[in-house]
Amino acid sequence: MLDAAVKVFSRRGFHAASMDEIADDAGISKPMVYAYLGTKEELFVACLHRETARMMEAIAGAAAPDLPADQRLWRGLRAFFGFVGAHRDGWAVLYRQARGSQPFAGELAAMRARLVEVVAGMLDHALRAEGREVAETELEVVAYALVGASESLADWLADRPEADPEKTATRMMNVAWLGAAQLLHGTTWRPPTP
């Protein structure tokens, strides 16, 4: 049922999707959909939770804490873009459909906050391994920037079935790590003095 719902919601959006179409795609009766998953809003939230859990499990499973920082980030990005490539409909529901619709935008914000927390933790771990500490605010800002850039690139990937998720992860890694490596070594850019 959730697979059918994700597919329909990704194509039509929350408001245009019908429970009849979801039931038909799932091969069950409409009353069964309501009996198992409740209202259309509850069904959409169930889809969001499942897709978020799938994505977070893929990332967490790939980025083992005992790896060097670059390998953790690489594996996390590869798992993230691999998820998007394998679950394009799920990504569309998470990123496109939930983003502008209340009360679902709150679900998306919670997902993003979890991703930011994971990325900030990875950065903090890498910095501590280099003998450096950075203010929590700085870690959070960099994590938000990396998550936002990755989300935008994932949205690009979702629209291009021919695009390779691993190559996309490599592109993001080059953008992220080349900058992160400089930060890890204490190099920062400063605006010119007037």
Task: Report on the architecture of this protein.
This is Transcriptional regulator, TetR family. InterPro entries: DesT_TetR_C, Homeodomain-like_sf, HTH-type_TetR-like_transc_reg, HTH_TetR, Tet_transcr_reg_TetR-rel_C_sf. The chain is elongated and about 65 Å long. The mean pLDDT is 87. Helix 2 crosses helix 3 (30-37) and helix 4 packs parallel to helix 7. The longest helix is centred in the middle third of the chain and has 26 residues, at 104-129. It has one domain (2-184): Tetracycline Repressor, domain 2, CATH 1.10.357. It has 194 residues and is an all-alpha fold. Helix content is 78%, strand content 0%.
CATH topology: Tetracycline Repressor, domain 2
Q: For this structure, what is the CATH homologous superfamily?
A: Tetracycline Repressor, domain 2
**Number of helical runs?**
9
Strand element count: 0
The coarse silhouette is elongated
Quickly count the domains. Answer: 1
Radius of gyration: 19 Å
> Mean of residue pLDDT?
87
